[in-house]
Amino acid sequence: MRYSLKQLAVFDAVADTGSVSLAADKLALTQSATSMSLAQLEKMLGRPLFERQGKQMALTHWGMWLRPKAKRLLQDAQQIEMGFYEQHLLSGNVKLGASQTPAEHLVPDLISIIDNSFPELRILLNVKSTDSVIQGVLDYKYDLGIIEGRCDDNRIEQEVWCRDHLTVVAAAHHPFAKHKTVSLAQLEQARWVLREHGSGTRKIFDSSIHHLIEDLDVWREYEHVPVIRSMVANGQYLTCLPYLDVERFIDSGQLVALNVPDLNMERTLSFIWRADMVENPLIECIKREGLRMMKGKPTVL
Q: Where is the HTH lysR-type domain (predicted)?
């Protein structure tokens, strides 16, 4: 075997950062030592692993082929080292990308469970839209993702964590708030404030309503749920948000859930990971504890 684990670690760090200098900082190496290790690896393998684009390093197709295999070897080496040093086998960092609803309402409890049961396992959380989480998993920015709705990319594996549903809401002073039911024609007349395109919430809403209403008056689009809630509570808008995001405001009387019999917006919240990723005990632990956490709770939140 002509290549070393150090060379693979350098390759992986350059792939992660897109930069030799940033990889050197990440590995606590000099830039010259990092460049030399990468050059030696490419020479031994007889293939270019990166295309140099100025200061940026982009993976070639050979680099893309090597990357999941290198990660597998590095993860196995880490487990061996921890075992011989008698450390807790479930220790290390997991980069988790989560969309807004699970990040706000479910992930904090999951992190608390992990902290109590596996104190050496660290979850590094990043909150993004569903599309950004999927892309982050594909780009190796996240080891594990939690998204709203489905992902149909065959490079991604998916496991349902739980289910929730979206609801159409208005302010208590909105004319529709006094109606027992609200028709599609009334929804078409309303002014809407919605989540941005790319969010899981918006995807579910659009797919549920696009074949029922031809022209919806979308007045504003925002990334942050609190902005949308506040605008709806204080104005003459409608919105559609996960029930988890509006439950407290409905209970307090600030918002009213509208009964729209023609709309059914149940959806899934799911774990996702790269299909070519080697089995990782840290990720399996997080998924297992997440599923255990939801046992005994309603199927639809």
A: 1-60
Residue 293 DSSP label: H
Coil, strand or helix at 231: helix
Fold of 92-162+268-294: D-Maltodextrin-Binding Protein; domain 2 (3.40.190)
pLDDT in tens, the chain (301 residues): 678 889 999 999 999 898 988 999 989 889 899 999 999 999 989 889 999 887 788 999 999 889 888 887 887 787 676 655 554 557 788 999 999 999 999 999 999 999 998 888 889 999 999 999 999 999 888 999 999 988 999 999 999 999 889 999 999 999 999 999 999 999 999 999 999 998 889 999 998 998 899 889 999 999 999 999 999 999 999 999 999 899 999 999 999 999 999 888 988 899 999 998 877 888 999 999 999 998 866 555 5
The residue behind tokens 């990660």 is 71
**What is d(CA 179, CA 28) in angstroms, rounded to the nearest whole number?**
64
Answer whether 5-84 and 163-266 agree in fold: no
Contact (CB, 8 A) for 255 and 171? yes
Q: Name residue 175's amino acid.
A: P
What is the CB neighbour count within 10 angstroms for residue 196?
14
Q: What is the CATH class of 163-266?
A: alpha beta
Q: Tell me which amino acid residue 130 is.
A: T
What are the domain boundaries of the chain?
A: 5-84, 92-162+268-294, 163-266
CATH number of 5-84: 1.10.10.10
Which is nearest to 273 in space by CA: 148, 152, 143, 160? Answer: 143
